[in-house]
Amino acid sequence: MRRAVIGNDAAQIRHLLEAGASTDSSDAYGKSILMDAAEQGHADSLLLLASQSRLIDAQNDKGDTALLLAAVSPNHLEVCRTLLDAGADTRLRNNRRELAADIASSAGHAGAARLIAQRKASGLWRPDWL
After folding, report:
1. Is the pLDDT of residue 6 over 60?
2. What is the pTM of this model?
3. Measured between alpha carbons, how far is 65 from 68 in angstroms, rounded to an integer?
């Protein structure tokens, strides 16, 4: 599954999910495949994975979540929007005490920082499928 996610192979991800593959596995550092998709900026893959994952807010050994990694990813605005629509928690901090909105702002991603801050201000929203 990780290879399909990193390669942004949505067809293969869909096939693996239909075959019962888990979206909630992680590597030795606690990095999930959802985090891989977010970090790579793969919004299409992320959309497939987020709809199946119970661990949207899982944290790796550095305390990063998929949303925190997405804040500095390529395609950051779309990836952040996908995670927020899936119910990612904007209040979680990494081990350096950083919030996703702060990380996006520091990286010069004003659009993503505004989107995250607006979602935080409006309260948490979780879709029915979670």
Report:
1. yes
2. 0.87
3. 5
Question: Cβ(73)–Cβ(79) under 8 Å?
Answer: yes
For the chain, list the domains and their CATH numbers.
2-121 (1.25.40.20)
CA-based end-to-end distance of the chain: 21
Which one, of 32, 31, 70, 7, lies nearest residue 21 by Cα? Answer: 32
- Share of residues in the chain with pLDDT > 90 (%): 73
Per the DSSP assignment, residues forming a β-bridge with 90 are: none
User: Residues near 75 by Cβ (< 8 Å), separated by ≥ 6?
Assistant: 41, 42, 43
**Among the listed residues 48, 111, 125, 102, the one whose alpha carbon sits nearest the alpha carbon of residue 78:** 111
Residue 125 neighbours by CB distance under 10 Å: 10
